[in-house]
């Protein structure tokens, strides 16, 4: 397999990051499927999922398109693609395939009814030109839809200072890594600038209690971004104390009887004319 430069992916390519993608996917699975259906995915469609990670969005699309449809997931990281194939096999999906590819220079055969991508545009240097280029794979009248987070909407209610501080570290690390933590809010404009008129937008957001996957996701996101935090002078490893962070947040949320809201997932979509 060809060497791939995965160095620009700010979250890293560790096995902990792959685990984090799984936790994130389990929290957002139903929200993603709802947003894909709302954007117009339907039975029988052929779907291209870019930046597919461990494959959960591809599998959500596969549930929608059914056995008459087909889904192709693409990612630059061979490690996550291996997990994606295992996940697809575990769910007995025969109509989902995965291939390695690096955006924006993607080459895939065929024409698709829908182009989808979750939490990928935030990681690209030039989302507009990438989306513009990718629409060539979508037939006229087909759907282009992307989903991304508004990270600053992550919070505990009532507020828990350790959660607030951790979310600030995460946002700052993404900014230092050249990424917009509020990419969700930018999606409609990215589609417009990519030549896709009249984009529509919807939002979905999971939440959980003090000992939930919501707290785990915040802690594990901090883990993946810790090297960037240290390099960027945002927080030291000692301040973050990553191996106890989840436990400390859970305890503080328990004391405050807080509900933890993880980032809003925004979807924007438009039709190719
Ligand atoms: C945050 S993950 C999201 C994965 C998946 N879409 C999901 O929502 O679970 C971003 C994924 O994009 C991939 N990625 C980042 N930059 C990429 C690029 N330039 N080309 C292809 N894949 C890329 C990473 O390897 C990673 O798997």
Q: What is the subunit arrangement here? A: single chain
Named CATH architecture: 3-Layer(aba) Sandwich
Note the beta-strand portion: 15-25%
Bound molecules: S-adenosylmethionine
**CATH class designation:** Alpha Beta
Which structural class should the secondary elements be placed in? alpha/beta
- Cα gyration radius (Å): 18 Å
Count of the domains? 1
Order of helices and strands: HEHEHEEHEEHHEEHHHEE
Parts with pLDDT < 50 across at least 5 consecutive residues: 1-6
Largest sheet: 7 strands, mixed
Number of beta strands = 10
Q: What is the CATH topology descriptor?
A: Rossmann fold
Using the alpha-carbon principal axes, give the shape.
Answer: globular
| Average pLDDT rating | 94
Helical coverage, percent range: 40-55%
CATH superfamily: Vaccinia Virus protein VP39
Q: How far do the termini sit from each other?
A: 37 Å
Give a written overview of the molecule.
- This protein has a 7-stranded mixed sheet, sandwiched between helices. The protein has a 3-stranded antiparallel sheet with strand order 6-9-8.
- Helix 1 packs parallel to helix 2 (56-65) and helix 1 crosses helix 7 (213-231).
- The chain has 9 helices and 10 strands.
- It starts with 14 loop residues before the first helix and ends with a strand.
- Helix content is 44%, strand content 21%.
- The chain has one domain: Rossmann fold, CATH 3.40.50.150.
- The radius of gyration is 18 Å and the shape is globular.
- By secondary structure, it is an alpha/beta fold.
- The longest helix is centred in the first third of the chain and has 25 residues, at 15-39.
- It binds S-adenosylmethionine (SAM).
- The site of S-adenosylmethionine has 19 residues, from helix 1 and helix 2.
